[in-house]
Amino acid sequence: MTSTRRRYLRGVCGSASVGLAGLAGCAIRAPTAPGDGGLDGDDDTDGNGSGGTRPSGTGGPGVTVVAVDDGPDLPIRPAIEVVREAATPEAPPQLRTTLTNAGDERVRIGEGRAAHFEYVADDSGLLILLPPADEYPAEPDCWRLDEGIAVTEEYRTFEVAAGGSSDRVVDLYATSEADGCLPVGEFRFETTVAVVSADAEPLSSGQWGFTVLLE
């Protein structure tokens, strides 16, 4: 069962909380738990740059998960795996996120998209994870977004039964901040996983993330 609650999102283009009218040209990061005033990773950090792009004549750099955080102090156990290791002319690299309920009771998780890394950018702002779709403004076989992606202003939640799990796939794109196609180097993604009440009020939350290597 899923539900939604209206909430602002933030862009990686430097603005604070913005409405949909102000999202043009911004790659979007999904929101954190209710009551959290900001996003981890908002501070500028030295990224790996986008000067190194996909080798000519190949499907792009291969993606490997090289580091994974310990699970947060929650009944939820997150995991990440590579589904499609390299880009093809038809599709970008793809990862799968899984959230397993290791507790004895059903739990509700929020924010539903951010918990699965949907619309979450890496710390450098050069990469973003998006749910599979055909309409993103990106050139095939390059997979760099020409512009930002607008996301609805809502706080989504979903339930996971005791012992059950929820998994989704996300595609890896370069943002419009990158100089070329998919850049090479190490890139860290981090998000908030929250256990919330039926009306989306936070009960407990924790940060979780992983690092990928593109080479």
Instruction: Describe the main β-sheet briefly.
Output: 6 strands, antiparallel
* Overall number of domains: 1
Ends: how far apart? 39 Å
Shape: globular
Low-confidence stretches: 4-58
Region (Disordered): 34-62
Biased composition (Gly residues): 48-62
Protein name: Intracellular proteinase inhibitor BsuPI domain-containing protein
What can you see in these coordinates?
The protein has 215 residues and is mostly beta strands. The chain has one domain. It is built from no helices and 14 strands. The chain has strands at 2-5, 9-11, 17-18, 28-29, 63-68, 76-84, 94-101, 107-110, 120-121, 127-130, 155-160, 165-174, 185-196, 202-214. It has a 6-stranded antiparallel beta sheet, with no helix packed on it. A hairpin with a 5-residue loop joins strand 9 and strand 10 (127-130). The radius of gyration is 17 Å and the shape is globular.
Question: What are the main properties of this structure?
Answer:
Intracellular proteinase inhibitor BsuPI domain-containing protein, 14 strands, globular, 215 residues, mainly beta, five-stranded antiparallel β-sheet
Give a brief rundown of this model.
This protein has 215 residues and is an all-beta fold.
